[in-house]
Fold:
Amino acid sequence: MNLRTLQIALLGISIGLAAGVGGYTFIYAKGYSYLTNDPAACANCHIMTEHYNAWLKSSHRAVAVCNDCHTPSGVIGKYVTKASNGFWHSFAFTTGHFHEPLRITQRNFEIAEESCRKCHQEIVEAIDHAMANESLSCVRCHSSVGHAVIGE
Amino acid sequence: MAEDAKSGRDDTEPRKRSVRFVLITTIIATLAAVGGVALLVNILERRQEARNPFYRVVELTDETTDPAVWGKNFPLQYDAYLRTVDQVRTRYGGSEAVPRTPTQADPRSVVAQSRLEDDPRLKIMWAGYPFAVDFREERGHAYMLEDQIFTERQQVAAQPGACLNCHASTYVAYKQLGNGDILAGFEKLNQMPYFEARNLVTHPVSCIDCHDPSTMQLRITRPAFIEGMRALKEAEGVKNYDVNQQATRQEMRAFVCGQCHVEYYFRGPEKRLVYPWAKGLKIENIMAYYDEERFKDWTHAETGAEALKAQHPEFEMWNQGIHARSGVACADCHMPYVREGALKISDHHVRSPMLNINHACQTCHRVEEAELKARVETIQQRTFRLRNLAIEALVELIEDIKSERAAGRSDSEIAPALDFQRRAQFYVDFVEAENSTGFHAPQEALRILAEAINFSRKGQMALRQATIAKSSN
Structure:
């Protein structure tokens, strides 16, 4: 066996192995589901199960899925947010290092706040005038409309 | 030859480069494969955990008292349960490990701090009652049996077996004593001398005291609670209430704790453990019940008042508070859910929520930890301040009665003041003996203390009136 054959064999085996294992893991972990809008995908890794169950019982269930409130509008913004959250959430859950009860990050908080305005723009504008210097936070009062997880 | 050498040199560089490329790529690909496998295994494990598996390693029966045996099937819950040995102080409670020299009568080398040393006025309040001899901060569940066996209260009074109802795992002992009937066993155990009954039990509160071994569902095993709830519901117009059949799951998450963290008394010579709820759970209902029963815990050694000692009425106090009103059970704060991998279990390390604010409070209250702690401590500080005033007023009443007695007043002249002492003593104690320094129901705790102060001062005024009436005659 000459050097060239050996090299090709090595490359083929290692890359093939990585691609095979990676591909299998991707399918086993339902990686493709993260590209969809299906809210069940967000509960794949167990952490969000309670939130998913709470959403199923909420009023917003009929009108909005996870991505409607937790990703910004526009295809690029949506997938950048999904990729970033997807990576960090998986990282945190795999390593086990995360704060409990879960806390929303500032960036994700702002996205959610903006999302309320996607549908409720009119009413927000009507009351926002009163607060000239600071913007009104919707979820400060309406924290339970999306998925109220109390004491679980 | 020269040409060969030249072409060899020309060949070496690209060859080296391609070898390096192959090696590096192989290493990266292999590492990626290893990482992929690690991730795959991790996902697999989490999926297994999320299925909430339960491995039946041993068979649990309705006779299995030893928690270590249950722990083989439920290792996570058992590990946490074992941690109730921890001794950690909180601002107004918890317990501090105080070293002591073991003696033959009491082999404990560590105890909790003495409450009587902290506040010697308690000895005046309880003069003539065993609690004036030895009263320490309560330690964790793990110590309940040991601390009851070795308290000095055992040496100054003969205690009945009834005390064990809440200081040991008694469920199987009831069944054995009553030939399968826990009510019959309960009646027998109550009447036995303490140290005879003590030989029938081995463990502090154990899994079987709250859980059904076949379904793991919560259940009530203490006859006194079953009877107490029946009497309470009867007063509310519900006949024949059966707590094990009719309580919801969320109610049970408070009721199993209410089996012991309550006000109680031993009724009659048969020493039946009774929870005094037949008129309701509020302090005036309980007081009225005791008055009707003409019950007294002891006769005050310095005044002769027929006094009542309140004991840890956590369940009654919690019932008057905002958390009970909002459907929050004991277990929600004292045994909050914790995550073990993809599994969620309730934390069996039962302890003060102040030592676990993150899980205990922040699941519902989205406020900084320091702020939540400050809120609780403000409530406790206010309660503690009023508790001190209430004890001060009671001690002054006791001193006044003593000096009136010394001045030769008759029993009938003092009788109204003694009745006020009985009331003030029970009201002060209802907050003092309650293990939350007011937090379980802040306004109710302060109301009770305010009424206690009022009773003490009214008692003092009754003495003055008796003196004036006498001098004007």
